[in-house]
Design a protein that fits this description.
The chain is α+β, with helices and mostly antiparallel strands. It is 25% helix and 26% strand. The two termini are 45 Å apart.
Length: 751
Amino acid sequence: MNNLLELKGEFQHMKNIVGGGSLSLKKKQMVEAKHLSELANELEKISSYWEKHTELEGALLSAHHDRVIPKSMRLQFLFSKGKSVPNDFVVGAKFEKKDDKSEQKCHVFTYFLPLEIVKKAINLLKITAEVIQNEYDGVIDYNKFESIKKNFHSKKIKRSPFLKVIIDGSNVSYFQIDRVVKDVQEDTLVTIYKTNENLPTRKLLARFGIYIPQERIIDELTIQMRPEELAILLDKAPYLVSMGVNDLTTYVPEEVPLISDQEERIIPSPKNEPIVGVIDTPFRENVYFHEWVEYINCIPDGIPIQDKDYTHGTEVTSIIVDGPKGNPQYDDGCGRFRVRHFGVALSGRFSSFSVIQNIRRIISLNKDIKVWNLSLGSILEINENFISPEAAELDKLQNEFDVIFVIAGTNLPPGQEGNPNYRIGAPADSLNGIVVNAVNNKGQSASYSRTGPVLSFFVKPDVSYYGGDGKCKDYMVVCQDDMGQAYNTGTSFAAPWVTRKVAYLIYVMGLSREVAKALLIDSAAGWHCKIDNKKGYGVLPRSIQDILKSEDDEIKFLVYGTTENYTTYNYQLPIPITDDKFPYLARATLVYFPLCNRNQGVDYTNTELDFHFGRVATNKKNNQPYIKSINGNLQAEKGGNGIYEIDARRDYRKWDNVKFVSDVLKSTVKPRTVYEKGMWGIKIYCKNRLSSSVQSGIPFGLVVTLKEINGVNRYATFIQMCQAKGWIVNEVSIENRIDIYLKGEESIELD
């Protein structure tokens, strides 16, 4: 086996020097004057409505498109004002079906605009429609559009705004005010659209006769509302509700544990083992490993805690501390961990609002903990159009405090047994966290596992692990009290095994959370990855050795860095050549933690790292190097403009925070051609969804695996070649890193 390698080198950074390109219609595209007139009429009705309803002091409206579109096809001109572009006024995004018969999804963007902008847009649409009708026979096609670029004379409108209105009009199907219709019977976490900057949410709601105390406000736009309060809002201002989820949810129960014969358990006292955070139901302090657990009860005074409330949390923590003792077949080689356990929920119904508040306080007061396990999940399915408040808070906390959550993928609730389409429950829709589903001991999806994806495109769960299923002998052995071992099943017990691996990679091996997550996904995916809505990228290996080492004919290395501009790249990655060929299969996994914005609905991730990895070639026209990506990614290259947004998301994981690219392992594989410089390269384009400026300083972790197709070990040669090109190469040896960790944890006595 070869050790994992760590490569440290210098990345180059470059600003975006390419403009947005000239305005153009697609060759088969046509824009009719009639369509622009209809858009103007729709906006007139909307404008008239908001002139009579002045509570928002502006206009809230939605633009409906006929498919999922890229940022470039959003409105670019119609809703602009001075230096403000239409994108600045977007307050929400969602998907809807094109029609009842089709599964095709369409983008819907919601804007909050000053009325003057709406009226300006109406005027521009009317004038443009009139000119098209009178001077171009009522329709503009590709040829007419190109001709207008060179020759256009109109007394009513200048050429540039005329062309821009046509482009905007071609991309929008219709405008309307979207309204929410919902039957409300329980407390609900409601998110409203961001409207008046100078009007706090409480004061805005008061205009509709709704008075919310400060303690029920999660953030500036999300509020815990009683049924009667939400009923008033939906009656008086149904357009204002962006999202709503039930606050009171039910913990998804696992199988009833079966207690075995009492068995004496012995465990040594803890020393300086790493500390993992667990947020769960209360912890029973009379178990054999209690010395390894610091328990903090977060259940409010006055709420009775029953005996059954301790079971789930205690079982989860037992795996993190001492899981291999009862489950030697799953011994991961990670040793034992100390746990700081926070009891925040009881075994039954609990308030999401309360859990969110508790988690923020817990993370902010325990900054020494970088790895957290969360095996609580909602019985309810996630919404297809927005991230749950719980998951959004986790994503926010992970960016704020540089932590990572390992989250159970949730179990099927009673009555849904055998339902293959029942979606995962909150907070398993956290995009930055590692979401874990369960498999049985044969690696098949557990009978109780629920399904992804999230927001139609994002891969969740991330990975899967063993959680027990089927017959009792295949259950997971846990500890719930002083009576000995118990048997249980569930995603709740798959997650802590993954938490152990993450904790080992971060605390013991000293790796970043980005690299740790990339390593896990890469090892789960392997050479036969087929993304599965229940398994994610695949089932993790049992041993930590199989994550940190590779086969003799493989070279696995990690690279990490930070994006500092639009482009971050390195073209100096030397790969050993044989007979003027590259005899390798290649795969790569890139992970980053983007800033997210829940208020943007389906467009939740604000940052995209467009990842290119492969051989470096030279463009013969301009003599500039470029990367021939192993997955054929052309998004940022000439010719990439023709890629539809839905295809880019599916094929290149556009806007996803995990990029996995891989060759397919086949029985016969041809070696790759060597280009001029004989190098491979890494290139990352950093793009922001909500603005043209680049969010700098985004850390990324990259894991690359090369497999020699003839079975030859070229590990030592690769190291020498990298060093010759200026890379600092370190072997990530488990033995060496453990020594470093132990020395770092030694107590120093001063005389």
